[in-house]
Amino acid sequence: MREPRRFGAVLVFASLLPAAYAIYALGSDILRGTRVLGSNPIKEGEHFLGEWTLRFLVLSLTITPLRQLLRWNWLARHRRTLGLFAFGYGVMHWLVYILLDIQLDMDEMVTDVIKRPYILIGSLGLLLMLPLALTSTKKMIARLGGKRWNRLHKLVYAASVAGVIHFWMSVKADISGPLTFAVIFAVLFAYRLWKWRGSADAGSVTPGE
User: Fold this and answer.
1) pLDDT at 15
2) The predicted structure's pLDDT at residue 209
């Protein structure tokens, strides 16, 4: 199957829509007193952006199975786009917490981290994504070399796990959301392990992407 016409542009446009909605909703609720996000718009905005971070991580990790199983090799060029959007939404999630929730109060942040360790876990997950975003260009791939670049980008697995733990610990009662993400990531990781074991049995020791 060939790449659909203007798929890249449509992907970028669609990926920007949740961010546009979050900015509009937060701005409207805070400045105009509306209730687009409900009675606690800042917290709801945080959760909204955090969930979209995980969704983009899922989408970026789904590229390889789809490419291999359906032979849609053209999908590979869009993995970077989805990964960068995952990082971008993670940064927005963090900025809403820092700028709007605690309003740059570092003392409150320290207190929050002590009382709610999931904040530290989520921040760690975002930090793990930073080198992936910084090395996503073709120039950086060439500078690092394919093998080192691939090893570095295995950090996406640790970032995904940290994100799910962060989400799980942040909810008080309904764990259906984080549980769903945990199952999806487990399936994606299991697929890669299966492919890697098959490659190892065939004489190759390079894990799948």
Assistant:
1) 98
2) 52
Token pair 């969930």 is found at 51
Q: Which residues of 108-135 are buried (b: 16+ CB within 10 A; e: fewer)?
A: ebeebeeeeebbebbbbbbebbeebbeb
Spatial separation of the C-alpha atoms in residues 27 and 73, rounded to whole Å: 40
Given a cut of 50, the residues of the chain with pLDDT beneath it are 204-208
Q: Coil, strand or helix: which one is 99? A: helix
Q: How many residues does the chain have?
A: 209
User: In terms of Cα–Cα distance, which of 58, 46, 107 is closest to 86?
Assistant: 58
CA distance 74 to 67: 8
In angstroms, rounded to a whole number, what is the distance separating the alpha carbons of residues 162 and 93? 15
Q: How far is CA 2 from CA 61, 67, 71, 73, 140, in A?
A: 21, 12, 10, 9, 28
Half-sphere exposure for 126 (CA within 13 Å, toward CB): 19
Q: Where are the alpha helices (DSSP H) in the chain?
A: 7-32, 41-70, 79-95, 106-115, 118-134, 138-144, 146-152, 155-170, 176-201
